[in-house]
Amino acid sequence: MKICCIGAGYVGGPTMAMIAHKCSEHTVTVVDINQARIDAWNSDKLPVFEPGLDEIVAGARGTNLFFSTDVDTAIREADMIFLSVNTPTKTYGVGAGRAADLRFIEKCARKIAEVAEDDKIVVEKSTLPVRTAESVKRILESNSNGRKFQILSNPEFLAEGTAMADLEAPDRVLIGGDQTPEGKAAIQALVDVYATWVPRERVLTTNLWSSELSKLTANAFLAQRISSINAISALCEATEANVDEVAHAIGTDSRIGPKFLKSSVGFGGSCFQKDILNLVYLCEHFGLPEVASYWNGVIEMNDYQKRRFSRRVISTMFNTVSDKKIAVLGFAFKKDTNDTRESAAIYICKDLLEEQANIAIYDPKVEAAQIQRDLGIDADNQYVTYCKDAYEATKDAHAILVLTQWDEFQALDFQKIYDQMQLPAFLFDGRNLLDLEALREIGFEASGIGKG
Ligand code: NAD
Ligand code: UDX
Questions:
Q1: I need a labelling partner for 302 at 20 to 30 A (CA). Which of 24, 271, 342, 437 fits?
Q2: 108 in active site
Q3: In whole angstroms, what is the distance from residue 201 CA to residue 440 CA?
Q4: Which residue of the set 108, 271, 349, 387 is catalytic?
Q5: What percent of the chain has a predicted confidence (pLDDT) above 70?
Q6: At residue 438, does pLDDT exceed 90?
Q7: 3-class state of residue 46 by DSSP
Q8: How far apart are CA 406 and CA 332, in angstroms?
Protein backbone atom coordinates (compact mmCIF):
# COMPACT_ATOMS: atom_id res chain seq x y z
CA MET A 1 0.00 0.00 0.00
CA LYS A 2 1.05 3.60 -0.50
CA ILE A 3 0.45 5.67 2.60
CA CYS A 4 0.56 9.45 2.77
CA CYS A 5 0.45 11.54 5.92
CA ILE A 6 -0.36 15.24 5.75
CA GLY A 7 1.36 17.01 8.66
CA ALA A 8 4.98 16.28 9.65
CA GLY A 9 4.72 17.38 13.28
CA TYR A 10 5.14 15.71 16.66
CA VAL A 11 2.54 13.12 15.73
CA GLY A 12 2.83 12.70 11.94
CA GLY A 13 6.62 12.25 11.96
CA PRO A 14 7.05 9.66 14.74
CA THR A 15 3.83 7.76 13.91
CA MET A 16 4.68 7.35 10.25
CA ALA A 17 8.30 6.51 11.04
CA MET A 18 7.02 3.63 13.20
CA ILE A 19 4.64 2.38 10.49
CA ALA A 20 7.46 2.48 7.90
CA HIS A 21 9.83 0.74 10.33
CA LYS A 22 7.37 -2.06 11.08
CA CYS A 23 5.80 -2.48 7.63
CA SER A 24 8.49 -2.74 4.98
CA GLU A 25 5.82 -3.71 2.44
CA HIS A 26 4.23 -0.24 2.60
CA THR A 27 5.68 3.03 1.32
CA VAL A 28 5.06 5.99 3.61
CA THR A 29 5.37 9.62 2.50
CA VAL A 30 4.98 12.39 5.06
CA VAL A 31 4.18 15.78 3.57
CA ASP A 32 3.98 19.27 4.99
CA ILE A 33 3.67 22.81 3.69
CA ASN A 34 6.43 23.88 6.08
CA GLN A 35 9.62 23.60 4.00
CA ALA A 36 11.95 24.09 6.98
CA ARG A 37 10.29 21.23 8.84
CA ILE A 38 10.58 18.88 5.88
CA ASP A 39 14.21 19.89 5.39
CA ALA A 40 14.85 19.07 9.03
CA TRP A 41 13.18 15.65 8.69
CA ASN A 42 15.55 15.00 5.78
CA SER A 43 18.60 16.13 7.78
CA ASP A 44 20.61 14.75 10.71
CA LYS A 45 18.87 17.12 13.13
CA LEU A 46 15.24 16.09 13.18
CA PRO A 47 12.70 18.80 14.11
CA VAL A 48 11.32 16.66 16.93
CA PHE A 49 13.37 15.28 19.80
CA GLU A 50 12.12 11.89 20.96
CA PRO A 51 14.27 9.16 22.48
CA GLY A 52 14.73 6.42 19.85
CA LEU A 53 13.31 8.45 16.94
CA ASP A 54 16.61 9.21 15.20
CA GLU A 55 17.48 5.53 14.81
CA ILE A 56 14.06 4.56 13.45
CA VAL A 57 14.05 7.42 10.92
CA ALA A 58 17.63 6.71 9.86
CA GLY A 59 16.73 3.05 9.25
CA ALA A 60 13.71 3.69 7.02
CA ARG A 61 14.29 7.09 5.41
CA GLY A 62 14.99 6.82 1.69
CA THR A 63 13.85 3.18 1.65
CA ASN A 64 10.13 3.21 2.45
CA LEU A 65 9.88 6.47 4.41
CA PHE A 66 9.97 9.82 2.63
CA PHE A 67 9.49 13.44 3.70
CA SER A 68 8.37 15.94 1.09
CA THR A 69 6.58 19.22 0.43
CA ASP A 70 5.00 17.82 -2.73
CA VAL A 71 1.57 17.37 -1.15
CA ASP A 72 -0.32 16.89 -4.42
CA THR A 73 1.79 14.01 -5.72
CA ALA A 74 1.75 12.22 -2.38
CA ILE A 75 -2.06 12.47 -2.22
CA ARG A 76 -2.50 11.36 -5.82
CA GLU A 77 -0.33 8.27 -5.37
CA ALA A 78 -1.66 7.19 -1.97
CA ASP A 79 -4.22 4.50 -1.17
CA MET A 80 -4.54 5.69 2.41
CA ILE A 81 -4.12 9.31 3.58
CA PHE A 82 -3.60 10.23 7.22
CA LEU A 83 -4.54 13.75 8.34
CA SER A 84 -2.15 14.73 11.11
CA VAL A 85 -2.32 18.50 10.95
CA ASN A 86 -2.59 20.78 13.95
CA THR A 87 -6.00 21.50 15.48
CA PRO A 88 -5.23 24.35 17.88
CA THR A 89 -7.71 26.28 19.98
CA LYS A 90 -9.46 28.89 17.85
CA THR A 91 -8.22 32.41 18.47
CA TYR A 92 -10.83 34.32 16.48
CA GLY A 93 -14.55 34.51 15.82
CA VAL A 94 -17.21 32.17 17.17
CA GLY A 95 -15.85 29.86 19.86
CA ALA A 96 -12.57 31.81 20.19
CA GLY A 97 -10.46 30.53 23.10
CA ARG A 98 -12.34 27.23 23.28
CA ALA A 99 -13.40 25.59 20.01
CA ALA A 100 -10.90 23.66 17.89
CA ASP A 101 -9.70 25.52 14.82
CA LEU A 102 -10.54 23.12 12.01
CA ARG A 103 -9.33 25.20 9.09
CA PHE A 104 -6.21 23.05 8.54
CA ILE A 105 -8.27 19.85 8.48
CA GLU A 106 -10.75 21.40 6.08
CA LYS A 107 -7.94 22.57 3.80
CA CYS A 108 -6.61 19.00 3.67
CA ALA A 109 -10.05 17.61 2.80
CA ARG A 110 -10.43 20.17 0.02
CA LYS A 111 -6.94 19.41 -1.25
CA ILE A 112 -7.71 15.69 -1.42
CA ALA A 113 -10.98 16.43 -3.22
CA GLU A 114 -9.06 18.59 -5.69
CA VAL A 115 -6.18 16.29 -6.59
CA ALA A 116 -7.24 12.68 -5.91
CA GLU A 117 -7.80 10.70 -9.09
CA ASP A 118 -9.13 7.47 -7.57
CA ASP A 119 -10.71 6.04 -4.39
CA LYS A 120 -9.00 6.84 -1.06
CA ILE A 121 -9.20 5.89 2.57
CA VAL A 122 -8.87 9.10 4.60
CA VAL A 123 -7.78 8.63 8.21
CA GLU A 124 -8.26 11.30 10.88
CA LYS A 125 -5.12 11.12 13.02
CA SER A 126 -5.49 14.64 14.41
CA THR A 127 -7.57 15.05 17.56
CA LEU A 128 -10.95 16.36 16.44
CA PRO A 129 -14.33 17.30 17.87
CA VAL A 130 -16.86 14.51 17.69
CA ARG A 131 -18.68 14.48 14.30
CA THR A 132 -15.84 16.14 12.35
CA ALA A 133 -15.77 13.12 10.04
CA GLU A 134 -19.21 14.18 8.87
CA SER A 135 -17.82 17.50 7.58
CA VAL A 136 -14.78 15.82 6.02
CA LYS A 137 -17.09 13.34 4.29
CA ARG A 138 -19.38 16.07 2.98
CA ILE A 139 -16.50 18.07 1.53
CA LEU A 140 -15.09 15.00 -0.17
CA GLU A 141 -18.43 13.65 -1.40
CA SER A 142 -19.71 16.93 -2.77
CA ASN A 143 -16.61 17.04 -4.99
CA SER A 144 -16.33 13.29 -5.61
CA ASN A 145 -16.86 12.97 -9.39
CA GLY A 146 -17.40 9.25 -9.00
CA ARG A 147 -14.45 8.63 -6.66
CA LYS A 148 -15.24 6.87 -3.40
CA PHE A 149 -13.86 8.04 -0.05
CA GLN A 150 -13.97 6.17 3.24
CA ILE A 151 -13.32 8.20 6.38
CA LEU A 152 -11.76 6.55 9.42
CA SER A 153 -10.96 7.97 12.84
CA ASN A 154 -7.66 6.72 14.30
CA PRO A 155 -6.75 9.06 17.17
CA GLU A 156 -3.21 8.98 18.50
CA PHE A 157 -2.57 8.29 22.18
CA LEU A 158 1.22 8.68 22.26
CA ALA A 159 2.71 10.97 24.89
CA GLU A 160 5.68 13.13 24.03
CA GLY A 161 8.99 12.02 25.48
CA THR A 162 7.87 8.38 25.27
CA ALA A 163 6.43 8.52 21.75
CA MET A 164 8.49 5.71 20.26
CA ALA A 165 7.87 3.33 23.17
CA ASP A 166 4.16 4.21 23.11
CA LEU A 167 3.98 3.57 19.35
CA GLU A 168 5.92 0.33 19.58
CA ALA A 169 3.75 -1.13 22.34
CA PRO A 170 0.51 0.86 22.58
CA ASP A 171 -2.07 0.05 25.28
CA ARG A 172 -4.51 0.06 22.39
CA VAL A 173 -5.02 1.34 18.87
CA LEU A 174 -8.46 2.78 18.19
CA ILE A 175 -10.06 2.71 14.76
CA GLY A 176 -13.55 4.05 14.08
CA GLY A 177 -15.36 3.85 10.78
CA ASP A 178 -18.70 3.50 9.06
CA GLN A 179 -20.51 0.28 9.88
CA THR A 180 -21.33 -0.35 6.19
CA PRO A 181 -19.58 -3.12 4.18
CA GLU A 182 -17.30 -0.48 2.54
CA GLY A 183 -16.62 1.14 5.94
CA LYS A 184 -15.77 -2.22 7.49
CA ALA A 185 -13.39 -3.02 4.61
CA ALA A 186 -11.60 0.31 5.18
CA ILE A 187 -11.36 -0.41 8.91
CA GLN A 188 -9.89 -3.82 8.10
CA ALA A 189 -7.25 -2.27 5.82
CA LEU A 190 -6.04 -0.08 8.68
CA VAL A 191 -6.31 -2.90 11.24
CA ASP A 192 -3.99 -4.92 8.97
CA VAL A 193 -1.37 -2.16 9.06
CA TYR A 194 -1.26 -2.06 12.88
CA ALA A 195 -1.65 -5.82 13.31
CA THR A 196 1.83 -6.18 11.79
CA TRP A 197 3.21 -5.42 15.26
CA VAL A 198 0.33 -4.68 17.66
CA PRO A 199 -1.44 -7.73 19.17
CA ARG A 200 -4.83 -7.97 17.45
CA GLU A 201 -6.80 -7.80 20.70
CA ARG A 202 -5.30 -4.37 21.32
CA VAL A 203 -6.70 -2.98 18.08
CA LEU A 204 -10.17 -1.73 19.01
CA THR A 205 -12.75 -0.93 16.37
CA THR A 206 -15.81 1.25 16.93
CA ASN A 207 -18.14 3.53 15.06
CA LEU A 208 -16.76 6.88 13.93
CA TRP A 209 -18.29 9.00 16.66
CA SER A 210 -17.18 6.79 19.54
CA SER A 211 -13.63 6.90 18.24
CA GLU A 212 -13.57 10.68 17.84
CA LEU A 213 -15.10 11.21 21.27
CA SER A 214 -12.84 8.67 23.01
CA LYS A 215 -9.76 10.77 22.28
CA LEU A 216 -11.15 13.91 23.91
CA THR A 217 -12.46 11.81 26.79
CA ALA A 218 -9.13 10.05 27.39
CA ASN A 219 -7.28 13.36 27.61
CA ALA A 220 -9.95 14.86 29.85
CA PHE A 221 -9.72 11.89 32.27
CA LEU A 222 -5.92 12.01 32.35
CA ALA A 223 -5.82 15.76 32.96
CA GLN A 224 -8.55 15.42 35.57
CA ARG A 225 -6.35 13.11 37.62
CA ILE A 226 -3.57 15.70 37.65
CA SER A 227 -5.94 18.52 38.60
CA SER A 228 -7.43 16.32 41.32
CA ILE A 229 -4.07 15.58 42.93
CA ASN A 230 -2.99 19.21 42.47
CA ALA A 231 -6.14 20.37 44.25
CA ILE A 232 -5.21 18.07 47.13
CA SER A 233 -1.64 19.46 47.08
CA ALA A 234 -2.99 22.86 48.13
CA LEU A 235 -4.76 21.23 51.05
CA CYS A 236 -1.57 19.33 51.95
CA GLU A 237 0.33 22.60 52.15
CA ALA A 238 -2.26 23.96 54.57
CA THR A 239 -2.28 20.86 56.77
CA GLU A 240 1.24 19.37 56.76
CA ALA A 241 0.11 16.29 54.88
CA ASN A 242 2.52 15.20 52.12
CA VAL A 243 0.97 14.92 48.67
CA ASP A 244 3.41 12.21 47.50
CA GLU A 245 2.39 10.09 50.47
CA VAL A 246 -1.30 10.73 49.83
CA ALA A 247 -0.86 9.87 46.12
CA HIS A 248 0.90 6.64 47.02
CA ALA A 249 -1.72 5.74 49.60
CA ILE A 250 -4.64 6.23 47.24
CA GLY A 251 -2.82 4.87 44.18
CA THR A 252 -2.36 1.45 45.76
CA ASP A 253 -6.14 1.02 45.56
CA SER A 254 -6.39 -0.97 42.35
CA ARG A 255 -9.56 0.92 41.42
CA ILE A 256 -7.59 4.18 41.42
CA GLY A 257 -4.16 2.96 40.26
CA PRO A 258 -0.75 4.61 40.75
CA LYS A 259 -0.16 6.37 37.43
CA PHE A 260 -0.72 10.05 36.62
CA LEU A 261 -0.93 11.10 40.26
CA LYS A 262 2.23 13.16 40.37
CA SER A 263 1.48 16.58 41.74
CA SER A 264 3.21 19.36 39.84
CA VAL A 265 3.38 23.05 39.01
CA GLY A 266 0.56 22.31 36.55
CA PHE A 267 0.13 20.25 33.43
CA GLY A 268 1.28 21.62 30.08
CA GLY A 269 1.63 20.27 26.58
CA SER A 270 -0.22 20.92 23.38
CA CYS A 271 -3.11 18.58 24.11
CA PHE A 272 -4.70 18.62 27.54
CA GLN A 273 -5.87 22.22 27.75
CA LYS A 274 -6.83 22.46 24.08
CA ASP A 275 -8.78 19.21 24.12
CA ILE A 276 -10.65 19.95 27.33
CA LEU A 277 -11.56 23.43 26.12
CA ASN A 278 -12.86 21.77 23.01
CA LEU A 279 -14.86 19.26 25.05
CA VAL A 280 -16.32 22.11 27.10
CA TYR A 281 -17.27 23.96 23.94
CA LEU A 282 -18.90 20.87 22.47
CA CYS A 283 -20.94 20.27 25.62
CA GLU A 284 -22.22 23.84 25.48
CA HIS A 285 -22.96 23.48 21.79
CA PHE A 286 -25.06 20.39 22.52
CA GLY A 287 -26.93 22.18 25.34
CA LEU A 288 -25.17 20.53 28.27
CA PRO A 289 -23.94 23.43 30.46
CA GLU A 290 -23.55 21.30 33.62
CA VAL A 291 -21.27 18.86 31.81
CA ALA A 292 -19.31 21.77 30.32
CA SER A 293 -18.79 23.36 33.71
CA TYR A 294 -17.70 20.03 35.26
CA TRP A 295 -14.84 19.63 32.76
CA ASN A 296 -13.96 23.31 32.78
CA GLY A 297 -13.06 22.86 36.44
CA VAL A 298 -10.05 20.76 35.36
CA ILE A 299 -8.63 23.75 33.48
CA GLU A 300 -9.48 26.21 36.25
CA MET A 301 -7.66 24.06 38.79
CA ASN A 302 -4.60 23.90 36.53
CA ASP A 303 -4.56 27.69 36.13
CA TYR A 304 -4.87 28.03 39.90
CA GLN A 305 -1.94 25.65 40.43
CA LYS A 306 0.37 27.67 38.15
CA ARG A 307 -0.69 30.97 39.73
CA ARG A 308 -0.33 29.55 43.22
CA PHE A 309 3.25 28.50 42.50
CA SER A 310 4.33 31.99 41.33
CA ARG A 311 2.64 33.63 44.30
CA ARG A 312 4.33 31.27 46.70
CA VAL A 313 7.75 32.03 45.21
CA ILE A 314 7.16 35.76 45.56
CA SER A 315 5.71 35.66 49.06
CA THR A 316 8.45 33.33 50.35
CA MET A 317 11.11 35.66 48.95
CA PHE A 318 10.00 38.50 51.22
CA ASN A 319 7.29 39.64 48.80
CA THR A 320 9.69 40.93 46.18
CA VAL A 321 11.71 39.32 43.43
CA SER A 322 12.52 42.61 41.73
CA ASP A 323 16.17 42.67 40.57
CA LYS A 324 16.78 39.23 42.05
CA LYS A 325 18.32 36.51 39.93
CA ILE A 326 16.08 33.48 39.70
CA ALA A 327 17.37 30.29 38.10
CA VAL A 328 14.76 28.40 36.13
CA LEU A 329 15.72 24.77 35.60
CA GLY A 330 13.65 23.27 32.81
CA PHE A 331 11.43 25.00 30.29
CA ALA A 332 9.94 22.07 28.34
CA PHE A 333 6.43 20.98 29.41
CA LYS A 334 7.84 17.62 30.56
CA LYS A 335 11.17 15.81 30.43
CA ASP A 336 12.62 14.17 27.31
CA THR A 337 11.04 16.58 24.85
CA ASN A 338 11.99 19.91 23.29
CA ASP A 339 8.31 20.88 23.14
CA THR A 340 7.29 23.92 25.18
CA ARG A 341 3.68 24.28 24.11
CA GLU A 342 1.57 25.37 27.12
CA SER A 343 4.50 24.62 29.41
CA ALA A 344 3.86 25.79 32.98
CA ALA A 345 7.32 27.40 32.79
CA ILE A 346 5.97 29.98 30.33
CA TYR A 347 3.33 31.16 32.80
CA ILE A 348 5.69 31.17 35.78
CA CYS A 349 8.40 33.10 33.90
CA LYS A 350 5.86 35.67 32.70
CA ASP A 351 4.63 36.17 36.28
CA LEU A 352 8.21 36.67 37.48
CA LEU A 353 9.04 39.06 34.65
CA GLU A 354 6.05 41.14 35.61
CA GLU A 355 7.62 41.36 39.06
CA GLN A 356 10.87 42.54 37.40
CA ALA A 357 12.93 39.49 38.34
CA ASN A 358 16.05 38.56 36.37
CA ILE A 359 15.58 35.02 35.16
CA ALA A 360 18.35 32.69 34.07
CA ILE A 361 16.96 29.71 32.18
CA TYR A 362 18.55 26.35 31.52
CA ASP A 363 16.84 23.53 29.65
CA PRO A 364 18.80 20.66 28.09
CA LYS A 365 16.73 20.62 24.88
CA VAL A 366 14.89 23.92 24.45
CA GLU A 367 16.61 26.59 22.37
CA ALA A 368 16.78 30.28 23.32
CA ALA A 369 14.82 31.37 20.24
CA GLN A 370 11.91 29.15 21.30
CA ILE A 371 11.91 30.61 24.81
CA GLN A 372 11.88 34.13 23.33
CA ARG A 373 8.86 33.26 21.17
CA ASP A 374 7.07 31.75 24.16
CA LEU A 375 7.74 34.71 26.43
CA GLY A 376 7.11 37.25 23.68
CA ILE A 377 10.49 38.94 24.20
CA ASP A 378 13.40 40.05 22.00
CA ALA A 379 16.77 38.30 21.98
CA ASP A 380 18.35 41.24 23.80
CA ASN A 381 15.79 41.40 26.63
CA GLN A 382 17.84 42.40 29.69
CA TYR A 383 15.78 40.41 32.20
CA VAL A 384 16.24 36.97 30.64
CA THR A 385 19.45 35.01 30.09
CA TYR A 386 19.95 31.56 28.59
CA CYS A 387 22.47 29.30 30.22
CA LYS A 388 24.51 26.34 29.01
CA ASP A 389 24.03 24.39 32.22
CA ALA A 390 22.44 24.47 35.66
CA TYR A 391 25.63 25.70 37.34
CA GLU A 392 25.77 28.80 35.17
CA ALA A 393 22.06 29.47 35.75
CA THR A 394 22.32 29.19 39.53
CA LYS A 395 25.50 31.25 40.00
CA ASP A 396 24.68 34.23 42.27
CA ALA A 397 20.98 33.35 42.14
CA HIS A 398 18.60 34.07 44.99
CA ALA A 399 16.35 31.15 44.12
CA ILE A 400 16.08 28.02 42.00
CA LEU A 401 12.82 26.93 40.39
CA VAL A 402 12.65 23.35 39.09
CA LEU A 403 9.95 23.43 36.43
CA THR A 404 10.68 20.33 34.32
CA GLN A 405 11.54 16.91 35.75
CA TRP A 406 14.72 16.30 33.68
CA ASP A 407 16.65 13.34 35.16
CA GLU A 408 19.93 15.29 35.08
CA PHE A 409 18.63 17.72 37.72
CA GLN A 410 18.67 14.90 40.26
CA ALA A 411 22.37 14.32 39.63
CA LEU A 412 23.43 17.96 40.20
CA ASP A 413 26.03 18.79 42.86
CA PHE A 414 23.77 20.88 45.09
CA GLN A 415 26.53 21.66 47.59
CA LYS A 416 28.47 23.31 44.77
CA ILE A 417 25.33 25.14 43.68
CA TYR A 418 24.55 26.31 47.21
CA ASP A 419 28.08 27.62 47.67
CA GLN A 420 27.69 29.99 44.71
CA MET A 421 24.19 31.30 45.54
CA GLN A 422 22.95 34.35 47.46
CA LEU A 423 21.70 33.57 50.95
CA PRO A 424 19.17 32.58 52.01
CA ALA A 425 19.23 30.18 49.07
CA PHE A 426 15.65 29.36 48.10
CA LEU A 427 14.69 26.31 46.08
CA PHE A 428 11.16 25.65 44.81
CA ASP A 429 10.75 22.17 43.38
CA GLY A 430 7.73 22.39 41.06
CA ARG A 431 8.03 18.71 40.19
CA ASN A 432 8.70 17.08 43.57
CA LEU A 433 11.82 15.69 41.93
CA LEU A 434 14.49 16.41 44.52
CA ASP A 435 15.24 15.18 48.04
CA LEU A 436 14.12 18.19 50.06
CA GLU A 437 15.57 16.89 53.32
CA ALA A 438 19.04 16.53 51.79
CA LEU A 439 18.76 20.03 50.32
CA ARG A 440 17.76 21.47 53.70
CA GLU A 441 20.76 19.80 55.30
CA ILE A 442 23.00 21.66 52.84
CA GLY A 443 21.28 24.88 53.88
CA PHE A 444 18.66 25.46 51.20
CA GLU A 445 15.28 26.89 52.10
CA ALA A 446 13.69 24.16 49.99
CA SER A 447 10.02 23.57 49.32
CA GLY A 448 8.06 21.29 47.03
CA ILE A 449 4.46 21.02 45.90
CA GLY A 450 1.98 19.82 48.51
CA LYS A 451 4.54 19.35 51.25
CA GLY A 452 3.54 21.28 54.32
P1 NAD B 1 2.26 20.00 14.90
O2 NAD B 1 1.88 21.42 14.91
O3 NAD B 1 3.57 19.56 15.48
O4 NAD B 1 2.26 19.47 13.38
C5 NAD B 1 1.23 19.74 12.46
C6 NAD B 1 1.87 19.96 11.09
O7 NAD B 1 0.82 20.06 10.12
C8 NAD B 1 2.69 21.24 10.96
O9 NAD B 1 4.03 20.92 10.61
C10 NAD B 1 1.97 22.05 9.87
O11 NAD B 1 2.85 22.77 9.02
C12 NAD B 1 1.27 20.95 9.11
N13 NAD B 1 0.14 21.42 8.30
C14 NAD B 1 -0.88 22.22 8.69
N15 NAD B 1 -1.73 22.41 7.67
C16 NAD B 1 -1.24 21.73 6.62
C17 NAD B 1 -1.69 21.54 5.28
N18 NAD B 1 -2.82 22.09 4.85
N19 NAD B 1 -0.94 20.78 4.46
C20 NAD B 1 0.22 20.21 4.89
N21 NAD B 1 0.68 20.35 6.15
C22 NAD B 1 -0.05 21.10 7.01
O23 NAD B 1 1.06 19.21 15.59
P24 NAD B 1 1.13 17.80 16.35
O25 NAD B 1 1.59 17.98 17.75
O26 NAD B 1 1.81 16.80 15.49
O27 NAD B 1 -0.42 17.46 16.44
C28 NAD B 1 -1.15 17.07 15.31
C29 NAD B 1 -2.51 16.56 15.76
O30 NAD B 1 -2.33 15.40 16.59
C31 NAD B 1 -3.31 17.55 16.59
O32 NAD B 1 -4.67 17.41 16.28
C33 NAD B 1 -3.06 17.09 18.01
O34 NAD B 1 -4.11 17.42 18.87
C35 NAD B 1 -2.97 15.60 17.85
N36 NAD B 1 -2.17 14.91 18.88
C37 NAD B 1 -0.99 15.44 19.34
C38 NAD B 1 -0.24 14.74 20.28
C39 NAD B 1 1.06 15.29 20.80
O40 NAD B 1 1.58 14.74 21.75
N41 NAD B 1 1.63 16.34 20.21
C42 NAD B 1 -0.68 13.50 20.74
C43 NAD B 1 -1.86 12.99 20.26
C44 NAD B 1 -2.60 13.70 19.32
C1 UDX C 1 -0.91 13.62 26.57
C2 UDX C 1 -1.52 12.22 26.76
O3 UDX C 1 -0.85 11.56 27.84
C4 UDX C 1 -1.40 11.42 25.49
O5 UDX C 1 -2.04 10.16 25.65
C6 UDX C 1 -2.04 12.20 24.37
O7 UDX C 1 -1.91 11.47 23.16
C8 UDX C 1 -1.41 13.57 24.24
O9 UDX C 1 -1.52 14.28 25.48
P10 UDX C 1 1.55 14.58 26.55
O11 UDX C 1 0.88 15.90 26.71
O12 UDX C 1 2.55 14.41 25.47
O13 UDX C 1 0.47 13.43 26.33
O14 UDX C 1 2.31 14.20 27.92
P15 UDX C 1 1.79 13.68 29.35
O16 UDX C 1 2.74 12.67 29.83
O17 UDX C 1 0.38 13.30 29.34
O18 UDX C 1 1.98 14.97 30.27
C19 UDX C 1 1.16 16.12 30.14
C20 UDX C 1 1.48 17.11 31.24
O21 UDX C 1 1.03 16.61 32.50
C22 UDX C 1 2.97 17.38 31.42
O23 UDX C 1 3.17 18.73 31.70
C24 UDX C 1 3.33 16.50 32.60
O25 UDX C 1 4.49 16.93 33.26
C26 UDX C 1 2.08 16.64 33.44
N27 UDX C 1 1.89 15.54 34.39
C28 UDX C 1 1.74 14.26 33.93
C29 UDX C 1 1.80 15.81 35.75
O30 UDX C 1 1.92 16.96 36.17
N31 UDX C 1 1.58 14.78 36.60
C32 UDX C 1 1.43 13.49 36.19
O33 UDX C 1 1.22 12.60 37.04
C34 UDX C 1 1.51 13.23 34.80
A1: 437
A2: no
A3: 50
A4: 271
A5: 100
A6: yes
A7: coil
A8: 9
Q: Is the CB of 233 under 6 A from ligand 2?
A: no
pLDDT tens digit string along 147-187?
A: 999 999 999 999 999 999 999 999 999 999 999 999 999 99
Q: Using the predicted structure, report yes or no on whether residue 102 has a pLDDT greater than 90.
A: yes
Q: Is 12 in the pocket of ligand 1 (CB under 6 A)?
A: yes
DSSP state, residue 242? B
Rounded to 5°, the CA angle 160-203-197 comes to 75
Strands annotated E in 131-272: 149-153, 173-177, 203-207
Query: Is residue 261 pLDDT above 90, yes or no?
Result: yes
Q: Is 175 exposed, middle or buried (0-12, 13-18, 19+ CB in 10 A)?
A: buried
Q: How far is the CA of 10 from the centre of ligand 1 (A)?
A: 7
The full 3-state SS of 57-122, as one line of letters, equals: HHHHECCCEEEECCHHHHHHHCCEEEECCCCCECCCCCCCCCCECCHHHHHHHHHHHHHCCCCEEE
Of 194, 147, 146, give the one whose Cα is nearest residue 168: 194
Q: 407 Cβ partners below 8 Å, 6+ apart?
A: 335
Q: Model confidence at 143, in pLDDT bands (50, 70, 90)?
A: confident
- pTM of structure: 0.96
Distance between CA atoms of residues 261 and 270, nearest Å: 20
DSSP string, 366-401: --HHHHHHHHT--TT-TTEEE-SSHHHHHTT-SEEE
Q: What is the pLDDT of residue 236?
A: 98
Query: CB of 169 within 8 A of CB of 203?
Result: no
Residues written for the chain = 452
